[in-house]
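Q: Please design a sequence for this.
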């Protein structure tokens, strides 16, 4: 079992920044993928960004150039630096952890961007 604890959501104005953090604990595999999905009201959950154990990243086209994902393997923590936030970034952001054909999810953290 893996537990994920997220932090860093909140309410900001358009153009401002937020940093999300997610720490994994429990039965951690050295080879894993971590990242963030988001779900806005009335929409499907979508991938925002992911990063694997060696630092290879991928991003949704809508956040490229504005969001940066990084990780600290020693702390089993993944970060999402979100800059130049837009109202359309408003959603619940969910951290995920994937390894050994199992996926785990955080409880979600709300990000609200006002115009």
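A: Design:
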């Amino acid at each position: 079992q893996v537990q994920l604890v997220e932090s860093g959501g909140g309410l900001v104005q358009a153009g401002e920044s937020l940093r999300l953090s997610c720490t994994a604990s429990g039965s951690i595999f050295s080879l894993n993928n971590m990242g963030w999905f988001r779900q806005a009201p009335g929409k499907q959950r979508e991938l925002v960004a992911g990063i694997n154990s060696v630092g290879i990243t991928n991003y949704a086209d809508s956040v490229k150039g504005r969001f940066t994902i990084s990780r600290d393997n020693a702390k089993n923590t993944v970060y999402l630096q979100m800059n130049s936030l837009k109202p359309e970034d408003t959603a619940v952001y969910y951290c995920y952890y994937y390894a050994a054909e199992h996926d785990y999810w955080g409880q979600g953290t709300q990000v609200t961007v006002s115009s």
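Q: Thanks. Anything notable?
A: The chain has a mean pLDDT of 96. The longest strand covers residues 18-26.
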